[in-house]
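Thread amino acids onto this structure.
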C-alpha cells in the first residue's frame, strides 16, 4: 500500500510527487508517456518559449535595433537550426526531473492508469501487461490535450495542433494560426520573428480580451508591426490541405492560402480515460474536476491539480496548487491558494499583468489614477533598443494603494513580479517613491510610472473621477 499515487507526470504531478517525497511518503508516479514532464516540459511551456528565443536570435531582430544596420535575416535557417536549442533544453529538463525523482525516492511507472476502485488503479503497460497498485491517497494531474475540431485533417503533415507543431518535419514558408488565445499569440509571434508571413484568425473582435484594453491593443499593434495579419470576427468554414499548401475558407468569403496551419482552438481536460466513476470522483463540464480549497475532489482522499481543475491552467499555478494539496494531505499545513496571480504572455514583445484592469475598476466604480512609463524614456530601455514598451500602474485614487500593473516590452514577464509583490503586500505609491532602484534598470520604470500617477493626483480637477488622464 503506497501513501500516494500520482497520475500524470507534468508540472502538477511532478511537483506534487516531489512534495510528498519531501514529507517522507512512499510515492509512485504514473506517466503515460515515455518521458516525465508532461506538456509543460515536452510539448508546451518550455519548448515553445525556447523556440521564441531561437527565433529572436536567428532573425537578428535585436541586432538590427542595437547596431542601427540591416542584419540579414537567417532565411536559410533550417528546421534543425530552429529546434536545436529547444531539443537541448527539453532533454536537460527531462534529465533533471528524472534525477530529482530518484533522489526523493519517488517510484516512476510508465503506462496508462485508470481507477478500478477508490483506492486501486490498474496500469496498462507498453508490453501488454497490467499492474495493479493501491494507495491511501491520490493526486490526479493528467493535464490536458489540444482540442482537435473535426473540420481539420490533423493526419495531414501541413495541419498542426499546438503539441504536434513541435515535431514538424519542415519549416513553414507561411502560416495560418486559427485561434488568437495565448498559445496562438505566442506561436504567431515566434514564426513572424523569422520573417514568415503569418495570418491569425479569431471569432472575437479583439486580441486577448482578458487583458487591460490598453495593453491588449498595444500588443495587437506591435504584432501587426511585426508583419502579422489578423482576421477578427471570422470563422473557418473549410480547411483544405494539399500537397504544398493549405487553403482556408472564411465565413466572410475571404480565402487564405499558406504552407501550413496551426489550430490553437483551446485544450480539453484529459480526464475521460482514467475511470473517475470507479473512484467516486465527480466531473463537471468539459471534463473539469471540481475541487475544494485544499484541492480535494468529491472523494476526499483524492486530490487534483493542474489543467484538470480548469482555469487558469498554467504551469505556475499547477505546480503551486499541487504543493498546497500535498501540504494538506501529508504535512497538516492549511495553506491556501493566493488569489493574486500574475499572467505572462511570451509574445513578441512580451506582455504581462497582475491585478485589476481599468475596465474592471470602471465596472466596480472604483476611483483610480493611472501612471505610465515608456521604455524609450528609460536609460536601460534605450540601451536595449526597446522602443514601443511601457509599464502602466493603476492606483486607488482614495489611498494610492496599487491595484494593477500592466507591462508590454522586454523582460515584462520578469518585471511583473515587482508589481505582484507590491499588490500582495497592499503597498502604495509612496512605497515606490521611497525606493531606490539600481541605475540603469528597467525596474526603474516603476518609479517613473509612480511619479506620473502622483502628478495626476495634483491635478484632480482636470481629470475625470475614474482615471481619465
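Threaded sequence (469 positions):
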Amino acid at each position: 500500500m503506497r501513501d500516494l499515487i500520482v497520475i500524470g507526470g507534468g508540472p502538477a504531478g511532478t511537483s506534487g510527487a516531489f512534495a510528498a517525497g519531501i514529507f517522507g511518503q512512499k510515492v509512485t508516479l504514473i506517466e503515460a508517456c515515455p518521458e516525465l514532464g508532461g506538456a509543460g516540459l515536452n510539448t508546451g511551456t518550455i519548448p515553445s518559449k525556447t523556440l521564441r528565443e531561437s527565433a529572436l536570435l536567428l532573425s537578428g531582430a535585436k541586432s538590427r535595433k542595437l547596431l542601427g544596420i540591416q542584419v540579414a535575416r537567417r532565411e536559410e535557417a533550417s528546421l534543425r537550426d530552429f529546434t536545436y536549442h529547444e531539443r537541448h533544453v527539453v532533454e536537460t529538463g527531462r534529465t533533471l526531473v528524472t534525477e530529482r525523482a530518484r533522489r526523493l525516492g519517488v517510484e516512476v511507472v510508465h503506462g496508462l492508469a485508470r481507477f478500478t476502485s477508490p483506492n486501486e488503479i490498474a496500469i496498462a503497460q507498453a508490453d501488454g501487461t497490467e499492474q495493479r497498485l493501491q494507495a491511501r491517497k491520490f493526486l490526479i494531474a493528467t493535464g490536458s490535450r489540444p482540442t482537435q475540431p473535426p473540420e481539420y485533417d490533423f493526419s495531414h503533415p501541413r495541419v498542426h495542433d499546438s503539441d504536434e507543431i513541435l515535431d514538424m518535419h519542415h519549416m513553414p514558408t507561411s502560416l495560418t494560426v486559427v485561434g488568437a488565445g495565448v498559445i496562438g499569440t505566442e506561436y504567431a509571434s515566434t514564426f513572424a520573428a523569422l520573417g514568415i508571413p503569418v495570418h491569425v484568425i479569431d471569432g472575437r473582435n479583439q486580441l486577448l480580451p482578458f487583458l487591460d484594453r490598453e495593453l491588449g491593443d498595444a500588443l495587437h499593434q506591435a504584432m501587426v508591426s511585426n508583419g502579422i495579419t489578423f482576421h477578427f470576427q471570422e470563422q473557418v468554414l473549410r480547411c483544405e490541405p494539399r500537397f504544398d499548401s493549405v487553403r482556408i475558407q472564411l465565413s466572410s468569403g475571404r480565402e487564405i492560402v499558406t504552407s501550413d496551419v496551426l489550430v490553437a482552438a483551446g485544450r480539453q481536460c484529459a480526464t475521460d480515460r482514467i475511470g473517475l466513476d470507479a473512484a467516486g470522483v465527480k466531473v463537471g463540464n468539459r471534463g473539469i474536476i471540481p475541487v475544494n480549497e485544499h484541492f480535494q475532489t468529491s472523494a476526499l482522499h483524492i486530490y487534483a491539480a493542474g489543467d484538470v481543475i480548469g482555469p487558469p491552467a498554467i504551469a505556475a499555478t499547477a505546480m503551486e496548487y499541487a504543493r498546497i494539496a500535498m501540504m494538506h494531505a501529508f504535512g497538516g499545513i492549511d495553506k491556501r491558494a493566493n488569489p493574486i496571480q500574475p499572467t505572462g504572455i511570451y509574445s513578441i514583445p512580451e506582455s504581462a499583468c497582475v491585478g485589476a484592469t481599468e475596465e474592471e475598476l470602471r465596472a466596480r466604480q472604483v476611483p483610480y489614477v493611472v501612471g505610465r512609463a515608456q521604455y524609450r524614456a528609460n536609460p536601460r530601455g534605450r540601451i536595449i533598443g526597446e522602443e514601443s514598451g511601457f509599464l502602466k500602474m493603476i492606483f486607488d485614487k482614495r489611498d494610492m494603494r496599487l491595484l494593477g500593473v500592466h507591462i508590454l516590452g522586454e523582460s515584462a514577464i520578469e518585471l511583473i513580479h515587482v508589481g505582484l509583490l507590491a499588490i500582495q503586500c497592499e503597498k502604495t505609491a509612496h512605497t515606490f517613491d521611497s525606493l531606490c532602484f539600481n541605475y540603469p534598470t528597467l525596474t526603474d520604470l516603476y518609479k517613473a510610472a509612480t511619479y506620473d500617477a502622483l502628478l495626476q493626483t495634483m491635478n484632480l480637477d482636470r481629470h475625470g473621477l475614474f482615471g481619465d488622464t
